Amino acid sequence: MFGIGGGELVFILFVVLMLFGSDKVPEIARTMGKAMAQLKNATNDIKSEIQKGAEANGLDAKSLNDITGNINAEINSAKANLMGDSQSLLGETATEIEKVKEDIDALSGPIKRQR
């Protein structure tokens, strides 16, 4: 649960108990439960409104899935093209680096400082 171990959970509960006292903890838990229920109801209302709006515009779940699939296919295609371009770009860069190394090796004599 959220990456919290048993000992850490006991410590947190102990601190909450010390801060609020044994009388207030059940009241706080009840309030938090009501808030979570209201949040869940609001989320469900928003989902239903979005669904109703989509249905009113002629979009159903199947067409939304088709649209999502097409968008994902385009993203994957663009990603593949970009990765292919980056591989060729890396190859060209390596070739240019090799040419520069050969040019440096071809220089004869010490490099003199310019003033």
UniProtKB/TrEMBL annotation:
Among Pfam families, the record links this protein to:
TatA_B_E
Bilayer topology: Single-pass membrane protein
InterPro entries linked to this entry: TatA/B/E (IPR003369)
Q: Where in the cell is it found?
A: Membrane
Provide this UniProt record's keywords sorted from A to Z. Answer: Membrane, Protein transport, Translocation, Transmembrane, Transmembrane helix, Transport
Name the UniProt record assigns to this protein = Twin-arginine translocase TatA/TatE family subunit
Which source organism?
Flavobacterium procerum
